[in-house]
Amino acid sequence: MVSSKEKDGAPFAPRGIILSDDNVLFVADFMDHGNKQGQIRTYDGTTGVFFGNLDHSGFGEPFYPRGVVIGPDGLLYVSVFDISNPNSGWVLRFDPNTGDFLDVFIESNSENNLHRPEGLVFNPDGSKLYITSFQEIRPGVMDTDKILVFDGETGEYLDEDRIDLYSVNEPRAFAQAILFGPDGKLFVPITGGSVETTGSVRRYDVESKMFDEIVPPASEGGSLGEPWYLTFGNTDPAALAYHSEEGIG
Q1: What CA–CA distance (Å, rounded) separates 246 from 183?
Q2: Domain spanning 7-248: CATH 2.130.10.10
Q3: In angstroms, rounded to a whole number, what is the distance separating the alpha carbons of residues 56 and 92?
Q4: Tens digits of per-residue pLDDT, 40-78?
Q5: Quick check: pTM over 0.70?
Q6: Under DSSP, is residue 130 helix (H, G, I), strand (E, B) or coil?
Q7: Whose CA is closest to 218, among 210, 226, 207?
């Protein structure tokens, strides 16, 4: 790991956060002062003592990390995009023990249209990786904000599993954080898009792609303004998997 010269290693713009089984707190510090590139910072999970930053020097693109999760292979997955190109997107892998950058697991292209990825989480059996895709600059009205799905082992894009958060000509809805919860359902807080949808929390069946609203939009009396990250009491703090009394799922 690369040590930081900053006072106590305090993050400037923290986003995703997880706590590993080794009691190491990983924080995605999105950017530094003056829009400088961010870091993945690590701390002692008990004392908060700063350990250092992960070494992302092997990644040749601008590094603005947003979401973090430990995958079923024990590696650290990090969602990244370039603030000068909002429709960019990558998912990188690091060795959480050494802090070394390993590879680019997923990269935005014309097939997957991964834009501004943030929330990322594996499904209960670890076979698929779900990632939010938010189009700040939409090429046209036919484009929608989505939750994209990739093979959890190979990174192959699984278009048939994609979840569109709204249909063309419907009120816009976008999410920037997601989490699996009870009964294998995917919980999606709607951060923004339109007054008809903002502030709601949806519960998706990932097979049918149908959802119900467990929290209504703010415009309909819901208690949330612009919800982002969420968790359950039984959420694994590293893998973000939900543990029921019977096991995961």
Answers
A1: 11
A2: yes
A3: 9
A4: 999 999 999 999 999 999 999 999 999 999 999 999 999
A5: yes
A6: strand
A7: 226
